[in-house]
Amino acid sequence: MLNSLSGRFVILTAVFVMIAEVLIFVPSIARYREEFLMDRLERAQIASLALLAEDMIDQSVQEELLQNAGVFNVVLRRNEARQLVLSAPIPAPISQTYDLRDAGAFELIRDAMNRLSTTEPQVIRVIGDPTNMGGLLIEVTLETSALRAAMVDYGLRILVLSAVISLVTAVLLNLAVRRLLVKPIRRVVGHMKSYAEAPEDARRVIVPSAGVRELREAEESLQNLQTQLTSALKQRERLAQLGSAVAKVSHDLRNILTSAQLFTDRIEMSEDPTVKRMAPKLVGSITRAVHLCEATLAFGKAEEPAPTLSVFALEDIVGDVIASERLSVEDHDLSFAIDIPADMRVRGDAEQLYRAIQNLVRNARQAIVNSGAPGEISVSGSVEDDAWLIRVTDTGPGLPAKAQEHLFTPFQSAGTRGGTGLGLSIAMELVRGHGGALTLERTGTEGTTFCIRLPRGSVNGAA
Protein backbone atom coordinates (compact mmCIF):
# COMPACT_ATOMS: atom_id res chain seq x y z
CA MET A 1 0.00 0.00 0.00
CA LEU A 2 2.73 2.48 0.98
CA ASN A 3 4.77 1.63 -2.14
CA SER A 4 1.83 2.18 -4.48
CA LEU A 5 1.08 5.46 -6.20
CA SER A 6 -2.38 5.78 -4.69
CA GLY A 7 -1.10 4.92 -1.20
CA ARG A 8 1.53 7.61 -1.31
CA PHE A 9 -1.04 10.11 -2.59
CA VAL A 10 -3.24 9.30 0.43
CA ILE A 11 -0.37 9.86 2.87
CA LEU A 12 0.80 13.05 1.17
CA THR A 13 -2.74 14.41 1.05
CA ALA A 14 -3.29 13.74 4.75
CA VAL A 15 0.04 15.38 5.60
CA PHE A 16 -0.62 18.44 3.44
CA VAL A 17 -4.14 18.88 4.79
CA MET A 18 -2.83 18.67 8.35
CA ILE A 19 -0.16 21.24 7.55
CA ALA A 20 -2.84 23.52 6.12
CA GLU A 21 -4.99 22.98 9.20
CA VAL A 22 -2.06 23.82 11.47
CA LEU A 23 -1.53 27.02 9.54
CA ILE A 24 -5.22 27.76 10.05
CA PHE A 25 -5.13 26.64 13.69
CA VAL A 26 -2.62 29.28 14.83
CA PRO A 27 -4.65 32.36 13.82
CA SER A 28 -7.86 30.55 14.79
CA ILE A 29 -6.72 29.91 18.36
CA ALA A 30 -5.51 33.50 18.60
CA ARG A 31 -8.92 34.69 17.43
CA TYR A 32 -10.64 32.41 19.92
CA ARG A 33 -8.55 33.83 22.77
CA GLU A 34 -9.45 37.35 21.72
CA GLU A 35 -13.15 36.50 21.58
CA PHE A 36 -12.92 34.81 24.98
CA LEU A 37 -11.40 37.92 26.57
CA MET A 38 -13.87 40.23 24.78
CA ASP A 39 -16.69 38.08 26.13
CA ARG A 40 -15.33 38.57 29.64
CA LEU A 41 -15.16 42.31 29.04
CA GLU A 42 -18.78 42.37 27.86
CA ARG A 43 -19.94 40.37 30.85
CA ALA A 44 -18.03 42.64 33.19
CA GLN A 45 -19.56 45.69 31.50
CA ILE A 46 -23.08 44.30 31.95
CA ALA A 47 -22.37 43.55 35.62
CA SER A 48 -20.95 47.05 36.19
CA LEU A 49 -23.95 48.68 34.54
CA ALA A 50 -26.27 46.70 36.81
CA LEU A 51 -24.32 47.93 39.82
CA LEU A 52 -24.41 51.54 38.61
CA ALA A 53 -28.16 51.30 38.21
CA GLU A 54 -28.53 50.23 41.85
CA ASP A 55 -26.06 52.00 44.11
CA MET A 56 -26.83 49.77 47.05
CA ILE A 57 -26.27 46.12 46.14
CA ASP A 58 -25.56 43.43 48.66
CA GLN A 59 -22.00 42.08 48.81
CA SER A 60 -23.19 38.61 47.93
CA VAL A 61 -24.85 39.98 44.78
CA GLN A 62 -21.59 41.68 43.75
CA GLU A 63 -19.72 38.42 44.20
CA GLU A 64 -22.32 36.65 42.08
CA LEU A 65 -21.99 39.30 39.36
CA LEU A 66 -18.20 38.92 39.33
CA GLN A 67 -18.48 35.13 39.34
CA ASN A 68 -20.88 35.21 36.38
CA ALA A 69 -18.56 37.58 34.56
CA GLY A 70 -15.55 35.35 35.34
CA VAL A 71 -13.41 38.23 36.65
CA PHE A 72 -12.04 39.51 39.99
CA ASN A 73 -12.71 43.22 39.52
CA VAL A 74 -14.03 45.69 36.97
CA VAL A 75 -12.74 49.17 36.31
CA LEU A 76 -14.91 51.40 34.08
CA ARG A 77 -13.86 54.79 32.78
CA ARG A 78 -16.81 57.08 32.01
CA ASN A 79 -16.48 60.78 31.33
CA GLU A 80 -12.72 60.78 32.02
CA ALA A 81 -13.35 59.37 35.49
CA ARG A 82 -11.82 55.97 36.26
CA GLN A 83 -14.01 54.04 38.67
CA LEU A 84 -13.59 50.65 40.35
CA VAL A 85 -17.09 49.34 39.91
CA LEU A 86 -16.80 45.74 41.11
CA SER A 87 -14.05 44.24 43.18
CA ALA A 88 -13.10 40.98 44.87
CA PRO A 89 -9.92 39.66 46.48
CA ILE A 90 -7.19 38.80 43.91
CA PRO A 91 -5.47 35.48 44.70
CA ALA A 92 -2.10 36.45 43.15
CA PRO A 93 -0.25 39.44 41.77
CA ILE A 94 -1.07 40.54 38.21
CA SER A 95 1.54 39.00 35.89
CA GLN A 96 0.56 40.44 32.49
CA THR A 97 -1.53 43.26 31.07
CA TYR A 98 -3.14 42.89 27.64
CA ASP A 99 -4.66 45.81 25.74
CA LEU A 100 -7.11 44.56 23.11
CA ARG A 101 -7.95 47.98 21.73
CA ASP A 102 -5.16 48.20 19.16
CA ALA A 103 -3.68 44.68 19.24
CA GLY A 104 -2.34 43.47 15.87
CA ALA A 105 -2.57 39.98 14.39
CA PHE A 106 1.05 39.09 15.18
CA GLU A 107 0.66 40.28 18.77
CA LEU A 108 -2.56 38.27 19.24
CA ILE A 109 -0.93 35.11 17.82
CA ARG A 110 2.15 35.55 20.02
CA ASP A 111 0.08 36.03 23.19
CA ALA A 112 -2.12 33.03 22.33
CA MET A 113 0.88 30.72 21.83
CA ASN A 114 2.40 31.96 25.08
CA ARG A 115 -0.84 31.23 26.91
CA LEU A 116 -0.99 27.66 25.54
CA SER A 117 2.61 27.02 26.53
CA THR A 118 2.16 28.36 30.08
CA THR A 119 0.57 25.70 32.25
CA GLU A 120 0.66 27.56 35.62
CA PRO A 121 -2.44 29.68 36.40
CA GLN A 122 -1.79 33.43 36.34
CA VAL A 123 -3.75 36.59 37.04
CA ILE A 124 -3.85 38.98 34.09
CA ARG A 125 -5.33 42.41 33.40
CA VAL A 126 -7.31 42.90 30.18
CA ILE A 127 -8.16 46.33 28.77
CA GLY A 128 -10.72 46.96 26.03
CA ASP A 129 -13.35 49.26 24.62
CA PRO A 130 -16.84 49.08 26.16
CA THR A 131 -19.62 48.03 23.80
CA ASN A 132 -22.49 50.27 22.69
CA MET A 133 -20.71 53.45 23.79
CA GLY A 134 -20.83 52.29 27.41
CA GLY A 135 -17.76 54.31 28.39
CA LEU A 136 -14.24 55.19 27.35
CA LEU A 137 -12.48 52.12 28.71
CA ILE A 138 -13.15 48.93 30.59
CA GLU A 139 -10.56 46.96 32.51
CA VAL A 140 -10.94 43.58 34.17
CA THR A 141 -8.71 41.22 36.14
CA LEU A 142 -9.10 37.45 35.73
CA GLU A 143 -7.34 34.13 36.18
CA THR A 144 -6.03 32.28 33.11
CA SER A 145 -7.07 28.73 34.04
CA ALA A 146 -10.48 28.94 32.38
CA LEU A 147 -8.98 30.75 29.38
CA ARG A 148 -6.32 28.12 28.79
CA ALA A 149 -8.75 25.23 29.33
CA ALA A 150 -11.15 26.73 26.79
CA MET A 151 -8.31 27.27 24.31
CA VAL A 152 -7.09 23.67 24.70
CA ASP A 153 -10.63 22.35 24.23
CA TYR A 154 -11.11 24.51 21.13
CA GLY A 155 -7.74 23.41 19.72
CA LEU A 156 -8.53 19.73 20.23
CA ARG A 157 -11.83 20.12 18.42
CA ILE A 158 -10.03 21.80 15.52
CA LEU A 159 -7.45 19.01 15.38
CA VAL A 160 -10.13 16.30 15.41
CA LEU A 161 -12.03 18.11 12.66
CA SER A 162 -8.79 18.48 10.69
CA ALA A 163 -8.09 14.77 10.99
CA VAL A 164 -11.57 13.93 9.73
CA ILE A 165 -11.21 16.37 6.82
CA SER A 166 -7.77 14.91 5.98
CA LEU A 167 -9.11 11.37 6.00
CA VAL A 168 -12.13 12.18 3.83
CA THR A 169 -10.01 14.22 1.42
CA ALA A 170 -7.40 11.46 1.22
CA VAL A 171 -10.02 8.81 0.47
CA LEU A 172 -11.65 10.95 -2.24
CA LEU A 173 -8.26 11.75 -3.76
CA ASN A 174 -7.31 8.08 -3.63
CA LEU A 175 -10.42 7.17 -5.60
CA ALA A 176 -9.75 9.97 -8.09
CA VAL A 177 -6.09 9.01 -8.50
CA ARG A 178 -6.99 5.36 -9.00
CA ARG A 179 -9.45 6.25 -11.73
CA LEU A 180 -7.53 9.04 -13.47
CA LEU A 181 -3.90 7.90 -13.06
CA VAL A 182 -3.36 4.45 -11.57
CA LYS A 183 -5.80 2.63 -13.83
CA PRO A 184 -4.42 4.19 -17.09
CA ILE A 185 -0.83 3.61 -15.91
CA ARG A 186 -1.58 -0.04 -15.16
CA ARG A 187 -3.09 -0.34 -18.62
CA VAL A 188 0.10 1.07 -20.15
CA VAL A 189 2.22 -1.30 -18.03
CA GLY A 190 0.05 -4.20 -19.17
CA HIS A 191 0.59 -3.20 -22.80
CA MET A 192 4.34 -2.97 -22.22
CA LYS A 193 4.44 -6.47 -20.67
CA SER A 194 2.35 -7.86 -23.50
CA TYR A 195 4.59 -6.18 -26.09
CA ALA A 196 7.74 -7.44 -24.35
CA GLU A 197 6.54 -11.03 -24.78
CA ALA A 198 6.49 -10.69 -28.58
CA PRO A 199 7.93 -7.33 -29.74
CA GLU A 200 7.95 -8.42 -33.36
CA ASP A 201 4.12 -8.73 -33.32
CA ALA A 202 2.73 -5.42 -34.58
CA ARG A 203 -0.69 -6.23 -33.09
CA ARG A 204 0.73 -5.74 -29.59
CA VAL A 205 1.68 -2.11 -30.22
CA ILE A 206 -0.27 0.12 -27.84
CA VAL A 207 -3.19 2.18 -29.16
CA PRO A 208 -3.41 5.55 -27.30
CA SER A 209 -6.75 5.96 -25.50
CA ALA A 210 -6.05 7.95 -22.30
CA GLY A 211 -8.18 11.01 -21.68
CA VAL A 212 -5.53 12.80 -19.62
CA ARG A 213 -3.31 14.82 -21.95
CA GLU A 214 0.01 13.93 -20.31
CA LEU A 215 -0.82 10.21 -20.23
CA ARG A 216 -1.95 10.31 -23.85
CA GLU A 217 1.32 11.96 -24.86
CA ALA A 218 3.18 9.19 -23.01
CA GLU A 219 1.10 6.54 -24.81
CA GLU A 220 1.76 8.18 -28.18
CA SER A 221 5.51 8.29 -27.46
CA LEU A 222 5.40 4.63 -26.42
CA GLN A 223 3.48 3.78 -29.58
CA ASN A 224 6.13 5.46 -31.75
CA LEU A 225 8.91 3.68 -29.84
CA GLN A 226 7.24 0.29 -30.14
CA THR A 227 6.52 0.83 -33.84
CA GLN A 228 10.15 1.72 -34.53
CA LEU A 229 11.40 -1.19 -32.44
CA THR A 230 9.11 -3.65 -34.21
CA SER A 231 10.33 -2.38 -37.56
CA ALA A 232 13.95 -2.58 -36.39
CA LEU A 233 13.47 -6.16 -35.18
CA LYS A 234 12.00 -7.18 -38.51
CA GLN A 235 14.88 -5.48 -40.26
CA ARG A 236 17.34 -7.24 -37.96
CA GLU A 237 15.74 -10.59 -38.68
CA ARG A 238 15.95 -9.87 -42.37
CA LEU A 239 19.62 -8.91 -42.04
CA ALA A 240 20.32 -12.08 -40.07
CA GLN A 241 18.74 -14.20 -42.77
CA LEU A 242 20.63 -12.26 -45.41
CA GLY A 243 23.88 -12.68 -43.47
CA SER A 244 23.41 -16.43 -43.38
CA ALA A 245 22.67 -16.48 -47.10
CA VAL A 246 25.65 -14.23 -47.88
CA ALA A 247 27.95 -16.46 -45.84
CA LYS A 248 26.85 -19.50 -47.83
CA VAL A 249 27.19 -17.67 -51.14
CA SER A 250 30.57 -16.24 -50.12
CA HIS A 251 31.84 -19.72 -49.28
CA ASP A 252 31.07 -21.09 -52.72
CA LEU A 253 32.00 -17.85 -54.49
CA ARG A 254 35.41 -17.87 -52.83
CA ASN A 255 36.08 -21.32 -54.23
CA ILE A 256 35.03 -20.21 -57.71
CA LEU A 257 37.16 -17.05 -57.51
CA THR A 258 40.13 -19.04 -56.29
CA SER A 259 39.88 -21.15 -59.43
CA ALA A 260 39.55 -17.99 -61.52
CA GLN A 261 42.68 -16.68 -59.85
CA LEU A 262 44.62 -19.68 -61.10
CA PHE A 263 43.48 -18.99 -64.65
CA THR A 264 44.47 -15.32 -64.44
CA ASP A 265 47.97 -16.40 -63.46
CA ARG A 266 48.19 -18.15 -66.82
CA ILE A 267 46.67 -15.19 -68.67
CA GLU A 268 49.41 -12.91 -67.31
CA MET A 269 51.92 -15.04 -69.25
CA SER A 270 50.26 -14.10 -72.58
CA GLU A 271 52.29 -11.99 -75.03
CA ASP A 272 49.22 -10.18 -76.38
CA PRO A 273 49.58 -6.41 -75.59
CA THR A 274 45.87 -5.98 -74.80
CA VAL A 275 45.90 -8.99 -72.49
CA LYS A 276 49.03 -7.72 -70.76
CA ARG A 277 47.34 -4.35 -70.17
CA MET A 278 44.07 -5.77 -68.87
CA ALA A 279 45.39 -8.80 -66.94
CA PRO A 280 46.73 -6.87 -63.87
CA LYS A 281 43.38 -5.14 -63.39
CA LEU A 282 41.56 -8.46 -63.73
CA VAL A 283 43.89 -10.03 -61.18
CA GLY A 284 43.37 -7.07 -58.82
CA SER A 285 39.57 -7.31 -59.09
CA ILE A 286 39.54 -11.05 -58.44
CA THR A 287 41.93 -10.63 -55.49
CA ARG A 288 39.65 -8.02 -53.93
CA ALA A 289 36.64 -10.28 -54.43
CA VAL A 290 38.43 -13.18 -52.73
CA HIS A 291 39.42 -10.96 -49.78
CA LEU A 292 35.84 -9.72 -49.44
CA CYS A 293 34.48 -13.27 -49.40
CA GLU A 294 37.04 -14.26 -46.77
CA ALA A 295 36.14 -11.26 -44.61
CA THR A 296 32.44 -12.10 -44.87
CA LEU A 297 33.08 -15.68 -43.84
CA ALA A 298 35.38 -14.61 -41.00
CA PHE A 299 32.91 -12.23 -39.37
CA GLY A 300 29.66 -13.90 -40.49
CA LYS A 301 27.68 -10.64 -40.04
CA ALA A 302 27.09 -7.33 -41.67
CA GLU A 303 30.01 -5.92 -39.68
CA GLU A 304 33.22 -4.73 -41.25
CA PRO A 305 36.63 -5.59 -39.78
CA ALA A 306 38.69 -2.76 -38.35
CA PRO A 307 40.64 -0.95 -41.09
CA THR A 308 44.29 -1.74 -41.57
CA LEU A 309 45.82 1.72 -41.92
CA SER A 310 48.58 2.56 -44.37
CA VAL A 311 49.59 5.59 -46.41
CA PHE A 312 48.89 5.35 -50.13
CA ALA A 313 48.27 7.52 -53.17
CA LEU A 314 44.54 8.23 -53.51
CA GLU A 315 44.83 8.59 -57.28
CA ASP A 316 45.82 4.91 -57.63
CA ILE A 317 42.70 3.37 -56.09
CA VAL A 318 40.42 5.97 -57.73
CA GLY A 319 42.01 5.08 -61.07
CA ASP A 320 41.27 1.38 -60.44
CA VAL A 321 37.63 2.21 -59.61
CA ILE A 322 37.18 4.31 -62.76
CA ALA A 323 38.86 1.68 -64.95
CA SER A 324 36.51 -0.99 -63.61
CA GLU A 325 33.40 1.15 -64.14
CA ARG A 326 34.42 2.12 -67.68
CA LEU A 327 34.15 -1.52 -68.72
CA SER A 328 30.47 -1.49 -67.70
CA VAL A 329 29.47 1.48 -69.89
CA GLU A 330 31.24 0.96 -73.17
CA ASP A 331 27.92 1.22 -75.01
CA HIS A 332 26.65 4.32 -73.16
CA ASP A 333 27.57 8.00 -73.52
CA LEU A 334 29.12 8.33 -70.07
CA SER A 335 32.46 9.95 -69.31
CA PHE A 336 34.64 9.83 -66.22
CA ALA A 337 36.99 12.42 -64.78
CA ILE A 338 39.60 12.32 -62.03
CA ASP A 339 40.69 15.54 -60.33
CA ILE A 340 43.08 14.42 -57.61
CA PRO A 341 46.48 16.01 -56.93
CA ALA A 342 49.26 13.60 -57.88
CA ASP A 343 50.93 14.09 -54.48
CA MET A 344 47.76 13.55 -52.43
CA ARG A 345 48.37 10.65 -50.10
CA VAL A 346 45.87 9.56 -47.47
CA ARG A 347 46.00 7.29 -44.45
CA GLY A 348 43.46 4.50 -44.42
CA ASP A 349 42.62 0.98 -45.49
CA ALA A 350 43.11 0.96 -49.26
CA GLU A 351 40.76 -1.98 -49.86
CA GLN A 352 37.94 -0.52 -47.74
CA LEU A 353 38.22 2.96 -49.27
CA TYR A 354 38.26 1.35 -52.72
CA ARG A 355 34.94 -0.33 -51.90
CA ALA A 356 33.45 2.88 -50.47
CA ILE A 357 34.39 4.95 -53.54
CA GLN A 358 33.35 2.14 -55.88
CA ASN A 359 29.85 2.02 -54.30
CA LEU A 360 29.43 5.77 -54.77
CA VAL A 361 30.68 5.71 -58.36
CA ARG A 362 28.58 2.63 -59.19
CA ASN A 363 25.42 4.27 -57.80
CA ALA A 364 26.14 7.35 -59.91
CA ARG A 365 26.76 5.24 -63.00
CA GLN A 366 23.52 3.26 -62.54
CA ALA A 367 21.51 6.46 -62.08
CA ILE A 368 22.84 8.00 -65.31
CA VAL A 369 22.48 4.80 -67.32
CA ASN A 370 18.88 4.26 -66.12
CA SER A 371 18.01 7.84 -67.07
CA GLY A 372 19.03 7.16 -70.69
CA ALA A 373 20.77 10.53 -70.96
CA PRO A 374 24.50 11.16 -71.37
CA GLY A 375 26.38 12.17 -68.29
CA GLU A 376 29.65 12.53 -66.47
CA ILE A 377 31.05 11.23 -63.19
CA SER A 378 33.99 12.92 -61.58
CA VAL A 379 36.01 12.05 -58.47
CA SER A 380 37.97 14.91 -56.91
CA GLY A 381 40.21 15.18 -53.88
CA SER A 382 41.36 18.06 -51.73
CA VAL A 383 43.24 18.57 -48.48
CA GLU A 384 42.19 20.69 -45.50
CA ASP A 385 44.08 21.38 -42.29
CA ASP A 386 42.41 18.52 -40.43
CA ALA A 387 40.91 16.29 -43.11
CA TRP A 388 41.13 14.76 -46.58
CA LEU A 389 38.06 15.32 -48.73
CA ILE A 390 36.96 12.99 -51.53
CA ARG A 391 33.98 14.09 -53.62
CA VAL A 392 32.03 11.94 -56.08
CA THR A 393 29.93 14.11 -58.39
CA ASP A 394 27.59 13.08 -61.21
CA THR A 395 25.29 14.86 -63.66
CA GLY A 396 22.47 12.37 -63.15
CA PRO A 397 18.79 13.05 -62.38
CA GLY A 398 19.33 13.36 -58.62
CA LEU A 399 18.02 11.29 -55.73
CA PRO A 400 14.25 10.89 -55.33
CA ALA A 401 12.69 12.30 -52.16
CA LYS A 402 11.84 8.83 -50.80
CA ALA A 403 15.45 7.71 -51.13
CA GLN A 404 16.66 10.81 -49.28
CA GLU A 405 14.46 10.00 -46.25
CA HIS A 406 16.40 6.78 -45.55
CA LEU A 407 19.61 7.57 -47.36
CA PHE A 408 22.00 5.34 -45.42
CA THR A 409 19.49 2.72 -44.19
CA PRO A 410 20.05 -0.77 -45.60
CA PHE A 411 17.48 -1.94 -48.19
CA GLN A 412 15.57 1.36 -48.05
CA SER A 413 17.76 3.87 -49.85
CA ALA A 414 17.78 2.33 -53.33
CA GLY A 415 17.22 5.21 -55.70
CA THR A 416 17.81 3.31 -58.94
CA ARG A 417 15.95 0.49 -60.65
CA GLY A 418 17.43 -2.87 -59.67
CA GLY A 419 19.39 -1.46 -56.73
CA THR A 420 19.54 -3.29 -53.38
CA GLY A 421 19.83 -0.25 -51.14
CA LEU A 422 23.08 -1.55 -49.63
CA GLY A 423 25.72 0.51 -51.45
CA LEU A 424 25.40 3.71 -49.44
CA SER A 425 25.04 1.91 -46.11
CA ILE A 426 28.19 -0.12 -46.83
CA ALA A 427 30.09 3.01 -47.85
CA MET A 428 28.91 4.81 -44.70
CA GLU A 429 30.04 1.95 -42.45
CA LEU A 430 33.45 1.76 -44.14
CA VAL A 431 34.03 5.52 -43.82
CA ARG A 432 32.88 5.54 -40.19
CA GLY A 433 35.39 2.79 -39.47
CA HIS A 434 38.07 5.34 -40.42
CA GLY A 435 36.58 7.90 -38.02
CA GLY A 436 35.28 9.87 -40.99
CA ALA A 437 31.88 10.89 -42.33
CA LEU A 438 29.95 10.39 -45.57
CA THR A 439 27.49 13.17 -46.39
CA LEU A 440 25.20 14.17 -49.22
CA GLU A 441 26.29 17.67 -50.20
CA ARG A 442 23.70 18.32 -52.91
CA THR A 443 21.22 16.56 -55.16
CA GLY A 444 18.79 17.73 -57.82
CA THR A 445 18.14 17.81 -61.53
CA GLU A 446 21.68 19.07 -62.11
CA GLY A 447 23.26 16.08 -60.39
CA THR A 448 24.42 14.73 -57.04
CA THR A 449 27.55 15.13 -54.93
CA PHE A 450 28.66 12.89 -52.07
CA CYS A 451 31.61 13.85 -49.87
CA ILE A 452 33.89 11.53 -47.89
CA ARG A 453 35.67 13.32 -45.06
CA LEU A 454 38.64 11.46 -43.53
CA PRO A 455 40.41 12.89 -40.47
CA ARG A 456 44.11 13.53 -41.00
CA GLY A 457 45.06 12.95 -37.35
CA SER A 458 45.68 9.37 -36.27
CA VAL A 459 45.13 7.90 -32.81
CA ASN A 460 48.51 9.12 -31.63
CA GLY A 461 47.97 12.52 -33.20
CA ALA A 462 50.36 12.08 -36.17
CA ALA A 463 49.35 13.68 -39.46
TrEMBL record:
Pfam families, A to Z: HATPase_c (PF02518), HisKA (PF00512)
EC numbers, comma separated: 2.7.13.3
Keyword terms, alphabetized: ATP-binding, Coiled coil, Kinase, Membrane, Nucleotide-binding, Phosphoprotein, Transferase, Transmembrane, Transmembrane helix, Two-component regulatory system
InterPro entries reported in the protein's UniProt record: HATPase_C_sf, HATPase_dom, His_kinase_dom, HisK_dim/P_dom, HisK_dim/P_sf, Sig_transdc_His_kin-like_C
TM stretches of this protein: 9-30, 154-177
Catalytic activity: ATP + protein L-histidine = ADP + protein N-phospho-L-histidine
Location of the Histidine kinase domain: 248-458
Coiled coil (UniProt feature): 215-242
UniProt GO molecular function: ATP binding; phosphorelay sensor kinase activity
Principal EC category: transferase
PANTHER family associated with the record: PEROXIDE STRESS-ACTIVATED HISTIDINE KINASE MAK3, SENSOR HISTIDINE KINASE
Protein name: histidine kinase
Biological source species: Roseovarius faecimaris
Lineage: Bacteria, Pseudomonadati, Pseudomonadota, Alphaproteobacteria, Rhodobacterales
